[in-house]
């Protein structure tokens, strides 16, 4: 029956989808009776609205009754999230973006702002118009870097050494805010000890960035009255992503650059609802309000909001990459996924495809037939964000309203309606009585009450009337909180921020004679994430029809490769053949491939499944590869 | 976002700051969507030299005071509005010779064989005459293309506005401004050299970086 379901649903013929939804509830229960509750898992996505993110957290726990729920933010913002919680006590950008123009120094670290978050460039230009200095830290001269005062060309996977050397220099030159450190932080001595031997000269050897430039970065940051350090996947998608972010936060704490206008260290989110999507409980260890699923008081609070006994809420599940490995190992047999395209976005695509094909039952809710959906038994056509209303929380923590422009076409339905339907068929409908998404939002706000991501005072009406609201909004009528940590009051129970000792350690895989070149991956301006939407838009495809491998002329010459030649790039996981773009804008020891494409064009054929031990983020940004001219007849 | 609307006495100006271009092509898409030139994009977005730089450059018509395109047109088909905006070739007059395409120092006019007519950026006359910003400037996310009054520019932006260009011996004055760092800078010498910067050696190879 399931095989026939696969066949008919791929054709997406009218009339059969209602039947497919009817069977979906059944396999989950069959698996759970046969293999235990956690053998059926769910994967979600952070591009969903707040309402859907919340609903999915509740659906997986109360309807599917599985612990194994995680989301694609595991490949996106989790390193920043863990570091923010450890150092500052909560996970949100400390600043509204309106603080960026107030900074005297703007430092972007591992963030290709212009191509991946274009509207943020406007805030940086406004800082520049005030005379702000710009530092750019990246293995490539990304578009924003052209205008930088100081460029720090780091080798992939070495960012914590660079931050360590900057802290070393701040200390050596006494560019410290001693009062702030004493009054508002813990752990400075340990952090200082960890970088005692990380001189700029040593960091230059590790990072490849000239020592003089590292010293200059320390001086610019240490002597400026205000400064913002903005970071993204470049430093976060590493096996030490959390450490890199902690090391960056150390620089903000050491110089007192928190809780004041134009001061902060902040991640730049990677997806449409990259902030809100990581707050409402569809992470494997999280409950609404950004609560911790392992903490008894947090569980009790959410159980009360949901009207269930605390024991009904499953415990902590597997994070996304471990979940895919558990599928591969045969421990998880059934899966429901939404808004997640791991066939393109997970590391080591050959392994991911093997895992998905091992599933005994796999159902996908998506608005297009993604590469991942091709592995599914049942595909339920869901909704685009233009086809539903709800809220999203911006990169700087402002809740905004999205209105539906059109209804879902044909047999497609709104995602939340599909989930309600499945919950009904699982016999758990009594927990999912909503007639619209505003009711889901109101429940989300109640469930978040008292948590860190507190939406208590938010309503759709206020969000629209006040052009968005910054959380936390801990009471009805509360104005919201655009800037966090004012007066040096951090979100840890004692109100103090934490320095962390970050000694340098190398990435999981380093170059050697066999694989002598560093690979780093990222995005291009005309494509978005795994391309499920943007690879279907002609104008955007025309701009970047296929991935190209960026390679410096020094390396290209040594390999006999000219611009436009096809090259084969091999790692220990796989290989890809694609045209070379010979450019002087990348380090000579590093190649870059954008990751938006599937199958034989997927950059993730090469990447490694090693993860950050704290955040479980895979190391998309660093791998060892061998580049060669492609032989005649090599498959494209 | 509320669209700014300018009155007749506000005299908004168009400013290009190439250094801020991120190559997203939003301007190209927006231009193409305009109904007045039938799905054709009249703005240019060039990759300058991808081997050496990520620099991309949007090019609208600069609307020269004494337009070279009109000077070389044998059919007298290219006209200027009273406000100095240079229009596409008049359809009944244009003979499709492409003299203007070859002669324009900025490379702006495009000849479309299927309609046998030269078409070019007219600074969205349909929009600007109603007080709205041209399509491209209204969508540019990085303020490389900017439309507003000179006062608004002075209040919010750094750098000097330049409207003079040297192409060898030809001196051109344009209605559209470019942004330069040096307030004392004279006309932009298009064939002149550029100053040295860290971009000549971004990875510090000359400093002996590894």
Write the layout of secondary structure elements.
The complex is a heterodimer of chains A (636) and B (210).
Chain A lengths: L1 H10 L4 H20 L4 E5 L5 H14 L5 E3 L6 H11 L16 E5 L3 H4 L1 H12 L3 E5 L12 E3 L6 H14 L5 H7 E2 L1 H7 L5 H8 L3 H13 L3 E5 L1 H4 L4 H14 L8 E5 L18 E2 L3 E2 L3 H11 L13 H9 L5 E5 L3 H4 L3 H10 L2 E6 L11 E4 L8 E4 L4 E5 L12 H11 L11 H12 L11 H6 L3 E2 L26 E2 L18 E6 L15 H6 L5 E3 L1 H7 L6 E5 L4 E8 L7 E5 L28 E7 L7
Parallel strand pairs in A: 1-2, 1-11, 3-4, 3-7, 4-5, 6-17, 7-8, 11-12, 12-13, 18-22, 19-21
Antiparallel strand pairs in A: 9-10, 14-15, 15-16, 18-23, 20-21, 20-23
Helix pairs in contact in A: 2-18, 3-18, 3-19, 4-13, 7-10, 7-11, 7-13, 10-11, 14-19, 15-17
Chain B lengths: L12 E4 L9 H8 L10 E4 L8 E4 L8 H5 L26 H5 L6 E3 L4 E3 L5 H4 L6 H5 L5 E4 L1 H7 L3 E8 L2 E11 L7 E2 L21
Parallel strand pairs in B: 1-8, 7-9
Antiparallel strand pairs in B: 1-6, 2-3, 4-5, 7-8
Q: Which structural class should the secondary elements of chain A be placed in?
A: alpha/beta
Structural class of chain B: alpha/beta
Total count of helical runs of at least 4 residues of chain B? 6
**Judging from the principal axes of the Cα atoms, what is the shape of chain B?**
globular
Proportion of residues in helical segments of chain B: 10-25%
Number of strands of chain A: 23
Total individual domains of chain A: 3
Strand content of chain B: 15-25%
Beta-strand fraction estimate of chain A: 15-25%
Kindly provide the radius of gyration of chain B, computed on alpha-carbon positions and rounded to a whole number of angstroms.
18 Å
Number of strands of chain B: 9
Report the principal-axis shape of chain A. globular
Annotated CATH architecture of the largest domain in chain A: 3-Layer(aba) Sandwich
Distance between the termini of chain B: 47 Å
